[in-house]
Design a protein that fits this description.
The protein has 218 residues and is of the alpha/beta class. The chain contains 9 helices and 6 strands. The chain has a 6-stranded parallel beta sheet with strand order 3-2-1-4-5-6, sandwiched between helices. Helix 1 packs across helix 4 and helix 7 packs across helix 8. The mean pLDDT is 92.
Length: 218
């Protein structure tokens, strides 16, 4: 069954990284390798979740990168090259497949809207054997994780999605901001790249994990 807070939802637009794909550990490991190389303070899970944000250039500056000494594209490329070499080792979050299957059974149409580059997005979804759950899969056309708003508008337009019955599920404030710009509902999961407190400051529904998207039939 689908929880009442999602009625009359017909469409789910999923974020990928941190929401369905559990890549938090890899992201912390990767950014720390870049920070260590530059002799900057390292992050732990708690500090990472408090500072990670979009656009990622701002987040890099917050953790100490000095773009007067090097261009943003240098650490950005270092990060994505290392991340891409290891992302195939990342698992889905617990209950991800169970939620996707339940939503499919409930007749919901599901889509992906991600800040991951399109070709890598397609690859990682196929590696995790969930590609077929989605009606359409939309990533970005570059590595720099810019706003997903325009791509989201394209997704809605080409699939004739009714905004009043669409819900975005993500794990960051940016997902909320994207949903707001797109004019659709939003639920955030506090099991990814940002802390529960930061997510709750958006004012939308925040769940602890994907498990909370499921309710038992009675």
């Amino acid at each position: 069954m689908t929880p009442d807070i999602y009625k009359p939802v017909e469409t789910i637009i999923w974020d990928w990284n941190g929401t369905l794909l559990n890549d938090l550990g890899l992201c912390i490991k990767t950014i720390n390798s870049l920070l260590e190389k530059r002799r900057l303070p390292l992050l732990n899970t708690s500090s990472y979740r408090e500072v990670f944000s979009f656009p990622v250039k701002d987040y890099y500056e917050k953790v100490g990168f000095d773009f007067s000494k090097e261009g943003f594209e240098i650490p950005a490329k270092e990060f994505i090259d290392q991340y891409n070499s290891e992302v195939n080792k990342c698992d889905l979050h617990e209950n991800a497949v169970k939620v996707l299957e339940q939503f499919k059974i409930n007749g919901l149409k599901q889509y992906i809207l991600s800040a991951m580059k399109q070709d890598m997005l397609n690859t990682t979804l196929k590696q995790n054997n969930i590609y077929y759950y989605f009606e359409d899969i939309v990533g970005l056309d570059n590595h720099y994780a810019a706003s997903k708003v325009e791509r989201g508008r394209e997704l809605i337009r080409r699939n004739n999605i009714k905004k009043d019955t669409a819900l975005m599920i993500g794990d960051t404030e940016h997902d909320f901001e994207v949903a707001r710009e797109l004019g659709i509902g939003c639920v955030l999961i506090a099991d990814g790249h940002q802390s529960q407190k930061r997510l709750e400051n958006t004012g939308v529904k925040v769940l602890n994990s994907l498990q909370d998207l499921l309710v038992s039939s009675k």
